[in-house]
Design a protein that fits this description.
The structure is a homodimer. Chain A is of the alpha+beta class. Chain A is built from 19 helices and 19 strands. In chain A, a hairpin with a 3-residue loop joins strand 12 and strand 13. Chain A is globular and about 70 Å long. At the A-B interface, helix 11, strand 17, helix 18 and helix 19 of A face helix 11, strand 17, helix 18 and helix 19 of B. Strand 17 of chain A pairs antiparallel with strand 17 of chain B, so a sheet runs across the interface.
Amino acid sequence: MSGRYSLGLDFGTNSVRALLVDVANGDEVATAVFEYPSGEGGLLLDRRDPNLARQNPADYVLGLTAVTRAVLEGIDAGQVVGVGVDTTGSSPLPVDARGAPLALDPRWKDDSAAQCWLWKDHTSHAEAAEITAKAAEQGRPYLGKCGGTYSSEWFWSKVLHCARTAPDVFEAAYSWVECCDWVVGHLTGTLEPSRMARSVCAAGHKAMYSRTWGGLPSKEFLATLDPRLADLRDRLYDHAVSSDHTAGAITYEVAAATGLAAGTPVAVGAFDAHFGAVASGARPGVLVKIMGTSTCDCMVHPLDNALPDIPGLCGIVEGSILPGCYGLEAGQSAVGDLFNWVTQLTGRTHQELSREAEALRPGESGLLALDWNNGNRTVLVDPLLTGLLVGQTLHTTAAEIYRAYIEATAFGALTIIRRLEEYGVAVKEVVNCGGIADKSPLVMQIYADVCNRPMKISRSGQTCALGSAIFGAVVGGVYRSAEDAQSAMVGFKDRVYLPDPAAAGIYAELFRLYSELHDAFGTGHGDASLGNVMKELIRIRERVRA
Amino acid sequence: MSGRYSLGLDFGTNSVRALLVDVANGDEVATAVFEYPSGEGGLLLDRRDPNLARQNPADYVLGLTAVTRAVLEGIDAGQVVGVGVDTTGSSPLPVDARGAPLALDPRWKDDSAAQCWLWKDHTSHAEAAEITAKAAEQGRPYLGKCGGTYSSEWFWSKVLHCARTAPDVFEAAYSWVECCDWVVGHLTGTLEPSRMARSVCAAGHKAMYSRTWGGLPSKEFLATLDPRLADLRDRLYDHAVSSDHTAGAITYEVAAATGLAAGTPVAVGAFDAHFGAVASGARPGVLVKIMGTSTCDCMVHPLDNALPDIPGLCGIVEGSILPGCYGLEAGQSAVGDLFNWVTQLTGRTHQELSREAEALRPGESGLLALDWNNGNRTVLVDPLLTGLLVGQTLHTTAAEIYRAYIEATAFGALTIIRRLEEYGVAVKEVVNCGGIADKSPLVMQIYADVCNRPMKISRSGQTCALGSAIFGAVVGGVYRSAEDAQSAMVGFKDRVYLPDPAAAGIYAELFRLYSELHDAFGTGHGDASLGNVMKELIRIRERVRA
């Protein structure tokens, strides 16, 4: 042990985690988790509106204090060289002129619009569609870097929805801040909106921020959405930076509460998945898949290597993952959630279904599914898509369906890889992290076979927090760059899932059929005749069974 | 009570049933069921070949003796005016020159090819395809009356498959007899093939028999399939008749065994579903749906009213249901079987799922299914089709899926009605019988709403056996015609399911989408763009939920 540590703080959907890491080698020295006490598992919900999902910012402060205290037990705070922070996003919250959340003000604390608008809040889908339509019809460049379609999960949709549906909250708010920036501002005492460091990851991927058009979208454009948004722009920011920048230092107040040393440097924040990618060895040519209930796919691409806009990709942002590279984000809206849904539907456990599904050969069930039960994030960028299962007989079993949905998510993953490569981003290696990558050899082998590429697994089971710690080590001066920190602190599991050529051959045939369904149902531009689909599935099934 | 009875004998897939009926009013006086002792639930199966399904003819004799004895208890045999017989079909069995089943000969009793080839035996799918292809390429008219496609469930496919795969059995057989003819031959001592009465229902629907081309297909045609089939034609029959004809009278041997009076007249046999249709009030304009694991749809059409060939209908046969009318047969390959499959998949009971599904409004699940888990019998006539479910979200429940499959079978039913009407057969009334019609108000209401027509339910819970009894009464001289017997002996339940106009409106929209999927996946001639399907389902769902 080097005796020098970095602290990573990872604010998730239901809890916050602290990870204390040895900066010399990435060894994970201590970890602690705090479940958010508010609402249901940390989520403020509304029975009348399934699209609503908020968080109470008070939980962040309670949580970071608890987990930091816990991991520092027995550690000299002076050994902690730096702190990194990642959160979910886009999760903006309304704040007053000093940067204090409206939600902490007794006047607003019970108003759901005054809370943090969690990434998965979809109340603003109409506003998202309006932003997409107006940007397109005005010929604005803003959507070029986010796949051509603005999302209800993102900053401006949410703020506009607040302005329209909760104008009192909107009026009371001086400004709006991404959760990852707010936490860093709180740790460093720089909450005043004009002084607060802003994450280029959050700004670029979710708020249409780009250097190429001078920061956030123009006031003229925002005014066409709502004049109040144009006014708000003056109280936002002009610059956002990558996480190798120091946002500030731990304040005396935070030091007293958490046990950290005052003055410890804190890195600019970012989104959890992006830091997870860094901690999984993101570098040009490497696709990192963060696999959980949904999946986030991250890649980086050298800034000096021209990159076109890539349709359907939900972000291409300078410095959002690694400084000095474009950060590319894609994703699948339901992966683990889809497998959970099959268990709920069938009343069976993952263990049972996995054991039975493992005994099946590719193609032998005759089933094929589209993995769109929660819409399609990449490459169709369409939340109004749904699931599809074809090929059922009267003998189709729950395990066959479970496997078909695993395969469907793998076909979705391959569709993303194909899109990246089609636009000049070569995928030379795939690294997986997150709960599913850790726990399911079945899923990982299917991904290797479907994508016909080896699947590596990140060594760490908590890559997002590790990514935060990596940037803590960078701002702590241990490494000159995130890449240097990665070289020392990142590792992989010994087991690499290698594609089986026979399985890959079958899956190549099934992927062709998947693509037919994908285009027919997803774009309406498919080849009209789907009369071959059931027949070919049966032909493959009979061949495999013979 | 009139003191005059008719006996209906109904030979099913797993058991034989006797029903003793008061000829004056159709009252069901006594019933008895005998489960076939051979094999698994009466089926002789082969673990290596899931397509194989045979029956042991010895079970028929054992069974008819037991059930007849049981229902005659306390009855004077002289009060029984006649006997009718229905069986499954096409279920042919090989017999020797005296009409004795090879399966009862010690030399052949363990050979599966020597047994009765049950309707659901699909071992001969290659032969069926060959018959279809050769009839078409030679420009033969034979398929015009059976929808254009010959089936592996039918007579010639099975006999040809036996000739090719069990030539010793084929050589040992003098001839082949449909089960319904064999049972009647046994009862009346007319088993010698040249003397045996032949059912026009079996001959016309399954053996390409028609007066318009002089009976069975020509020797020339059969020789192109196999010269041995051409030879066999000489040992089959030239005439087949409807069930208002007397096939013969109960023999002394059968009388002694069963308790019936020797000399009691026996009607020419027919298939179970066709007699079920008669007992449900089949007459021109009335569609009778016999709803069980699969569904058989029957109609009649006046002989003097010109009728074109109807593509996809699996039979148009003179006199097969009511003498003096064309009998039209259509069907759905899986109905109750599909609902059973959902219960197996989800581990839930019909009762639970029905209760939850009943609380759902049409369209609110956003789901749509194709009911093809066992292929499509009418109108696509394609066993190589499979099931499809679209519209799933992460919140989709088992009850929603259960309801979606009920709706899918109703859309399939409506597709058949549309096809009939398109070719000039008006469907003015729908009568349902069978287990599902009796037991599931949920299914019946959905059918009423989807088809936008009232759904009547047959009074009898055992319509096939009642149909046999109706023909027993006709040959017993109580009535001059089947129609007269129907007037006296057929009734309906008081409860008629009436369509709800609001539900019918939603279902009209969903049926349009069902038809798009039906054509795209079933024919390959669909409108190419299915990009609207998921969107429209969501739009309907949101409207219904609002």
